[in-house]
Amino acid sequence: MPTYRRFKATPDAVAIYDVETREPNIGNEPFTDPLSHVSKLHFHSSLRYPGIVSTVRGNLSLPAVSAGTFYEDTYNIHVHGLSGAPYVEGVIYLGGQWVTMAGSVPIDQDVGGSPDDGSSFARFLNLGSSETRVLFHEYSITHSSYGGYAAQTIPYVIYVTDYIMS
To answer: Please, what's the b/e burial string for 131-160 (b: 16 or more CB within 10 A of its CB; e: otherwise)?
Structure first.
């Protein structure tokens, strides 16, 4: 059965949603009861969507990490000034392209011995926020026989939203 995209507006609301018919009086449940029909909904004006309250651009300087070590650090990037820990999104420029900060992002790899013996190690970055700041968290593990990681400078763009996580 085909699916059609419908736009519906009244003086009180506007919505975009999927229906299975072109008949205008059938299938309007996503408009009248959006939370019960989220799978068909693309937008509804009665729902709250996060807004970007600030965009932070800069360069993150990571120190060199010597061989045979576990290294962990937190880098305070920006004081957000909100009343709680906001939801943040961001990208880093790595390897000639912008990479989305989704979870733990590997930014370097240390293949200490043979890849077959399981001796691969890496340097990771996470993006997050606290009650007062936007921050990056790094954790790195290096192999004892490899030279470690060189110092790096990584450009970033971070989007701070008005959606408070805590």
So the answer is: eebbbbebebbbbeebebbeebebebebbb
Contacts of 38 (CB under 8 A, 6+ apart): none
**Tens digits of per-residue pLDDT, 112-142?**
555 555 566 889 999 999 999 999 999 998 8
pLDDT at residue 112, rounded to an integer: 56
- pTM (2 d.p.): 0.77
Check whether 85 has a pLDDT greater than 80.
Answer: yes
Rounded to whole angstroms, the Cα distance separating 107 from 120 reads 14
Spatial distance between the Cα atoms of 20 and 43, rounded to a whole number of angstroms: 17
What whole-number distance in Å separates Cα of residue 100 and Cα of residue 80?
Answer: 20
| Structure-block tokens of residue 21 | 């018919």
Model confidence at 96: pLDDT above 90: yes
51/152 Cα distance (integer angstroms)? 32
Look at strands 52-62 and 152-164 and give their pairing.
Answer: antiparallel
Q: What is the mean pLDDT of residues 50-71?
A: 93
Of 65, 83, 91, nearest in space to 154 by CA: 91
- Give the distance between the most distant pair of CA atoms in the chain: 70
